[in-house]
Design brief:
By secondary structure, the protein is an alpha/beta fold. It folds into two domains: about 150 residues, 2-Layer Sandwich (VC0802-like); about 160 residues, 3-Layer(aba) Sandwich (Rossmann fold), CATH 3.40.50.150. Helices cover about 30% and strands about 25% of the residues. It contains nine helices and 14 strands. Strands 2-3-1-4-7-6-5 form a seven-stranded mixed β-sheet. The protein has a seven-stranded mixed β-sheet with strand order 10-9-8-11-12-14-13, covered by helices on one side. Strand 2 and strand 3 form a beta hairpin.
């Protein structure tokens, strides 16, 4: 079967590598998604184990159209009763960029009518639409004249792990946090510190990686569990196999924040994720912290500037650079921010730059290598 794993911009390569490790075939990275093939067991496994996928779609049809009538006819040709019953509810999520339709919602209505008429011709009845809690979620993607219709096997986006009970003002998306960790090359083999941890997303995602905990372990359900062909025994086997790999953390993971409230929120989330033994949390000002050992990793998600005055944000970034230089020798530091101007105040030259998105905010992920003393000239 063919599948599409959706992700955030900039994480396509990381997700592609993850899918290969999970056993996917024909893996191809595209914009904000990765195409792959596999069987039903792999579909369950990717939903349960992928750290950087937002959702997993199963395409059921793709065709070209010359008018809105072609969309209706194309939808009518899909054997919808292979996927759900007339008594099941459904909903459609349309993503449309085509001159054939004045607005996105109109294309969704046409497909809805097509599905309803398919069942009416078969059974004399039509299924109901439920936009709040549908049994089947259908994705309609139209680009110019190319239509792709898929069924969403995740429904609730996969970044909603299920462990987050408390959150700070601007929490980091869990998929983005996991993506940053994997993009950095950190794999649970070195000490990790997040000195501006907020509600704890980076330390928690790091803990899940280090302990090999499947990110889907805390979720109540996946969309495929409501499919007509759901194999409960197969899903139990997938979960048991993945859960059997869980280990105690082989490394130290530290999180801290200057806000006592943020640290308390982080403690609740860490406990929900079952990572109390893996993660140490404390209230601390970053500039007073020193590295616990060299060759460790530091991850920073400082305020982007929306909640601080320009002079305050510049001082903050200057302090970050000074603290990294003097208190974290021998470490590798990664910093994500949307404030590209204030980054100059860090005063350090980044070794790598990556463009990522945190929601609608375009961000840069920067890598700093904190060498002790004068850095030796690199061999060319």
């Amino acid at each position: 079967m063919k599948f599409v794993a959706k992700t955030l911009y900039g994480l396509e390569k990381v997700l592609a590598e993850e899918l290969v490790d999970l056993g996917a075939a024909d893996v191809q990275a595209v914009n904000r998604a990765v195409l792959f093939t596999g069987d039903k067991e792999l579909l369950y496994k990717v939903n349960y184990c992928s750290r950087t996928a937002l959702s997993i779609l199963m395409p059921v049809a793709d065709f070209r159209i010359r008018s809105k009538d072609d969309l209706y006819k194309g939808g009518l040709k899909i054997k919808w009763d292979s996927y759900f019953e007339v008594d099941d509810t459904f909903s459609i999520v349309p993503v449309v960029n085509s001159s054939h339709f004045g607005h996105t919602g109109y294309a969704g209505l046409i497909l809805k009518d097509s599905i309803a008429d398919y069942f009416r011709e078969k059974t004399g009845r039509r299924p109901s639409v439920d936009t709040v809690d549908p049994r089947i979620l259908i994705n309609l993607h139209i680009s110019n004249d190319l239509v792709t219709i898929s069924i969403d096997s995740s429904v609730i986006p996969l970044f909603k792990r299920g462990y987050r009970q408390e959150q700070s003002v601007a929490p980091l998306n869990e998929v983005l946090a996991a993506g940053i960790l994997l993009l950095s090359g950190w794999n649970g083999s070195a000490t990790l510190t997040d000195p501006m941890c907020g509600s704890g997303t980076i330390p928690i995602e790091a803990g899940l990686i280090a302990c090999k905990v499947p990110p889907g372990k805390f979720r109540k359900y996946f969309g495929f569990q409501r499919w007509k062909d759901f194999d409960e025994e197969l899903f139990k086997k997938v979960k048991l196999r993945a859960d059997s790999l869980i280990i105690p953390s082989p490394v130290k993971i530290f999180g801290s924040d200057i806000s006592e409230q943020a640290v308390q929120q982080a403690k609740v989330n860490v406990s929900n994720a079952g990572l109390n033994e893996a993660i140490s949390l404390q209230v601390s000002d970053f500039k007073t912290i020193k590295t616990v050992d060299e060759e460790s990793f530091v991850f920073l998600n400082p305020p982007y500037g929306q909640r601080l005055q320009p002079d305050e944000i510049d001082q903050l970034y200057n302090m970050i650079g000074t603290t990294l230089k003097h208190n974290f020798p021998g470490t590798t530091a990664w910093l994500i921010t949307s404030n590209k101007e204030s980054v100059k105040n860090i005063g350090l030259k980044p070794r790598e730059k990556h463009t990522l998105f945190n929601g609608a905010l375009e961000c840069i992920l920067l890598k700093y290598e904190m060498y002790q003393g004068t850095r030796k000239k690199e061999k060319i």
